[in-house]
Amino acid sequence: MTDALFAMVPLYGAWILLVATYLSCLAVPMPSSLMMLAGGAFAASGDLSLVGSAGAAYIGAIAGDQTGFVIGRRGGAPLVDRLRRRRSAAEPIRRAEAMLGRKGAITVFLTRWLLSPLGPYVNFLGGAMRMPWPHFTLGSVTGESVWVVVYVGLGWMFAGQIVLVAELASDVAGMLAAGAVAIVLGSMLFRKRPH
């Protein structure tokens, strides 16, 4: 499926990037980061517009975040309970809920690009937990801008080594996410230590 999606990037250009980022923000499994890398690479070769590719990916991501927030707001606690019953979503929901309860807009910002597997669940939970919409939107628009600029930009800058860049981006994102989790857990343990 991934190969078929990549083949669509030069054919459908910005539209496929918009759809991919939109769906990924709603927890639909999509290789949107890799597709943005491909969009940047095709822009470097002149097959796509750099601004068009980045703009479409950004608009799709923001629209997906906002849709997830509205779904969460309307679905409320029953939606969150249904998500928790799904085996694949139970742990991300728990982690996203804990982070949102402590850090709000910062959590939204970080889950757009650094802790992106939690992003869709933060969208739903932000709405369900009645997070103020301006706070959610601030975290969303700033975080998505980092995500899009990094991935489309890397694809554009390193078009000739796109496979290597994709592997490195995946490895770095994993290391950063692991480091962030280690810091959060360490601070929790530090706070719980006996005085």
UniProtKB/TrEMBL annotation:
Keywords assigned: Membrane, Transmembrane, Transmembrane helix
GO CC terms in record: plasma membrane
InterPro entries in UniProt: DedA_domain (IPR051311), VTT_dom (IPR032816)
The keyword Membrane is annotated on this UniProt entry: yes
TM stretches of this protein: 6-28, 146-166, 172-190
Keyword Membrane set for record: yes
Domain (VTT) ranges: 31-156
Protein name (database record): Putative membrane protein
